[in-house]
Amino acid sequence: MNSDKLLLDGTRVAHQIQQDLAIRVSQLAAKGIQPCLVTILVGDDPSSETYVRMKGNACRRLGIQSRRIHLAQTTTTEELIAVIHEMNQDSYVHGILLQHPVPPQIDERAAFEAISIHKDVDGVTMLGFAQNAFGEASFPSCTPAAILAILDDYQIPIEGKHAVVIGRSPILGKPVSLMLLNRNATVTICHSRTVGLDHIVGLADILVAAVGKPAFVQGSWIKEGAVVIDAGYNSGNIGDVDYEACLTKSSAITPVPGGVGPVTIAMLLKHTVDAAEKVGQ
């Protein structure tokens, strides 16, 4: 990589966050409290199983209890919500994560909304989204929180910058746009029906790619000196931007893997510890 290009190393940022969390987990242990994250997996999607296993391993390395609930592919919405309500009532559980996606017969939004706001450590409820919009969220969505954590760690200015976000999902594109707006960036949200996408991307001081298409963003679209945050992860360890081409034009860029992903998991752990500390106060 060129010496004047800044590689935004998410693995390093995540390690720093986890070092801090290890101290906080030890302090909670002295009070007889062990942070507990429950992960609910419905069905047998291989990628989801891998993600759940990674999150469980990360919990155990820090001394956070990881409880996994694996429900059958045929589970109904009502059955899933009943399990979530049971976890809401369990005082030893501090965070609840419902792994996306769920089987098609399940009303995913209804299931998300069943999660207590106090245990919504993945930031998936509508109340959590609204709190995030007002800058008051205890637990913002984890990937948007990871993106802000990386920018802050590398002291990349946000205020007054033009941020372009490609993607409008309720747990990534929309919340990260609001978080950047709350930090006084000027934000443009683009999506599959945006006309002149390449032109708009070319105006970005900060680009967040969350479109879910491998190597979609071309280097020719990028303004010289832009900061490129690739929040995509596609088959073959490929992000949403053409990395080599965008590297040429950018001043800073996240790799895939090793960029946003590790910090997303670190933020999930942080939110779980935050929730446990609130209980322990």
UniProtKB/TrEMBL annotation:
Tetrahydrofolate dehydrogenase/cyclohydrolase NAD(P)-binding domain sequence ranges: 141-278
EC id: 1.5.1.5, 3.5.4.9
UniProt keywords, alphabetically: Amino-acid biosynthesis, Histidine biosynthesis, Hydrolase, Methionine biosynthesis, Multifunctional enzyme, NADP, One-carbon metabolism, Oxidoreductase, Purine biosynthesis
Pfam families named among the record's database cross-references: THF_DHG_CYH (PF00763), THF_DHG_CYH_C (PF02882)
SUPFAM superfamilies on file: Aminoacid dehydrogenase-like, N-terminal domain (SSF53223), NAD(P)-binding Rossmann-fold domains (SSF51735)
Binding site residues for NADP(+): 167-169
Domain Tetrahydrofolate dehydrogenase/cyclohydrolase catalytic: 8-122
Gene3D superfamilies recorded: Leucine Dehydrogenase, chain A, domain 1, NAD(P)-binding Rossmann-like Domain
Catalytic activity: (6R)-5,10-methylene-5,6,7,8-tetrahydrofolate + NADP(+) = (6R)-5,10-methenyltetrahydrofolate + NADPH; (6R)-5,10-methenyltetrahydrofolate + H2O = (6R)-10-formyltetrahydrofolate + H(+)
Origin superkingdom: Bacteria
Protein's pathway: One-carbon metabolism; tetrahydrofolate interconversion
PANTHER family recorded: C-1-TETRAHYDROFOLATE SYNTHASE, CYTOPLASMIC, C-1-TETRAHYDROFOLATE SYNTHASE, CYTOPLASMIC-RELATED
Function: Catalyzes the oxidation of 5,10-methylenetetrahydrofolate to 5,10-methenyltetrahydrofolate and then the hydrolysis of 5,10-methenyltetrahydrofolate to 10-formyltetrahydrofolate.
Subunit relationships: Homodimer.
Family: Belongs to the tetrahydrofolate dehydrogenase/cyclohydrolase family.
Protein's name in the database: Bifunctional protein FolD
Organism from which the protein derives: Paenibacillus marchantiophytorum
Gene name tied to this protein: folD
